[in-house]
Design brief:
53% strand, 30-stranded mixed β-sheet, 0% helix, mainly beta, Dex49a from penicillium minioluteum complex, domain 1, 450 residues
Length: 450
């Protein structure tokens, strides 16, 4: 079963690609960074044949990423690309000479909320809604039906048990010409028991999802394309017990980042809040990340104006790209926090440029504390980097403390691979260290080289 959606004619549609799934046309939309298509695929009904065509020229070269999906495409005589899906996958179809085409297959929805429920704000498909600022109250659900385009932002403060869901689109362009500030597309402050799932987010003017001093948050199957600088994907600020999973995030700043600080800037009172909770129990897994020139793929920092940041895990992540000056693995402690017990596990890196690892205690324009902090007990385990020849001599790693009293301690590198081959010494990472202790390479969890 394939379910496609019809979008308002005011949307920007792809001028380059067409897409058919099991013979059914799927509308392809356009942003400045990538084209994308959303549909529902019930894998229990058998494989789905996907056909991608360029409108003018034939497809000559292609890649289906992340490569870990193991998808293989075939080129037909008419210049079309054909491949099969056997599960609801989110992937990037990359054609030589073209912008990426994101093909986002979603599983059938369960327990769709009722339009008649007074606690449900229901946006029907096929229409555009200019809502501006939409504030949620405790127990409310916002439902974006597939094909709906909601222009504006969603805000909640001390609203427990809220849900944002549906296969529709949240479009941040409502604020592009109205504010000079970077407006957060979804900002949830001091909320408990939150679910954000299935939505697609485009055209932000600032951070795309921010959870500030929240607890028990699940962010699932969210798709994002952020073009502008400061379009962070998911900002987990001073929050606890947060689970981000099965998301596809393309951002022109940090894709997923953990912070803790007080927002004291901007004219809008929504953007001034004390978010100095101690982040802990954060799990990010089963995600695909694409980072444009600004920011990092997986980041902790820069703003960490609290006592402790702990129990942070990134697991089973595909990093399609870190194109700019950022890093794949990043901890920037610019404040007083003790950052500890951090795990990066089962990470596949398809492209990065400037930095592979960047763990630093420093001071910057983002700092608010005079005291410097610490970084300790960090593990990178089962990492494979498809390192290209162009990376050699250019892509470096940095691990640096602030001074003799504020150090980076106990960084374990377990089974780090270049192109499937385990490295034999930390020097192969072209790593630069200062005020750093016990930076150790562990191959197959047996031999240790420090």
């Amino acid at each position: 079963m394939i379910q496609s959606f019809s979008y308002p004619r005011s949307c920007r549609f792809s001028t380059e690609f067409t897409l058919h799934v099991n013979g059914q046309a799927v509308e392809v939309l356009r942003t400045d960074a990538a084209d994308f298509a959303i549909f529902v695929y019930d894998a229990s009904q058998g494989p789905a044949e996907v056909v991608v065509k360029r409108r003018i020229e034939p497809i000559l070269e292609h890649a289906l990423r992340p490569l870990s999906l193991g998808l293989e495409g075939a080129l037909r005589e008419d210049g079309a690309l054909v491949f099969q899906l056997t599960s609801a996958q989110k992937l990037s179809v990359e054609v030589a000479g073209s912008r990426p085409l994101y093909v986002w297959a979603n599983p059938p929805e369960l327990d769709v909320p009722s339009e008649a429920d007074p606690n449900v704000i229901y946006f029907k498909g096929g229409q555009t809604y200019e809502v501006g600022r939409l504030e949620l109250q405790a127990g409310q659900t916002v439902y974006l039906e597939g094909g709906a385009v909601v222009k504006g932002r969603i805000y909640a403060q001390q609203a427990d048990g809220i849900t944002i869901r549906g296969y529709g689109i949240l479009d941040g362009s409502y604020y592009g010409s109205r504010f000079k500030e970077h407006v957060k597309s979804v900002f949830l402050e001091r909320c408990h028991d939150v679910l954000v799932r299935d939505i697609t987010m485009i055209h932000p003017s600032g951070w795309m999802i921010m959870v500030g001093v929240c607890e028990r948050v699940e962010i699932c199957n969210v798709k994002q394309i952020g073009e502008v600088v400061c379009s962070d994907g998911v900002d987990i600020v001073g929050s606890k017990h947060v689970h981000v999973h099965d998301c596809f995030l393309h951002n022109n700043d940090d894709c997923v980042v953990v912070k803790a600080f007080a927002m004291k800037h901007g004219k809008n009172p929504d953007f001034c809040a004390d978010l100095k909770g101690c982040p802990e129990d954060i799990l990010v897994e089963n995600c695909t990340l694409a980072n444009d020139p600004a920011g990092n793929a997986m980041e902790i920092g820069h703003e960490l104006s609290v006592e402790r940041v702990s129990d942070i895990t990134f697991r089973n992540i595909d990093v399609l790209s870190v194109h700019g000056q950022g890093a794949v693995f990043s901890i920037h402690n610019n404040d007083r926090a003790v950052v500890e017990d951090v795990l990066f596990e089962d990470i596949r890196v398809e492209h990065c440029w400037d930095k592979f690892i960047d763990f630093r205690i420093s001071k910057s324009r983002f700092s608010s504390d005079q005291e410097r902090g610490h970084i300790r007990n960090v593990v990178l385990r089962d990492v494979n980097w498809l390192r290209a020849d162009n990376n050699i001599g250019y892509t470096t790693s940095l691990i640096g403390g602030w001074d003799a009293e504020h150090r980076v301690e106990n960084v374990r590198l377990e089974n780090i691979c270049f192109n499937g081959e385990p490295i034999q010494h930390v020097d192969e990472l072209e790593i630069n260290t200062r005020y750093a202790d016990e930076v150790c390479l562990v191959e197959q969890a047996v031999a240790t080289v420090c």
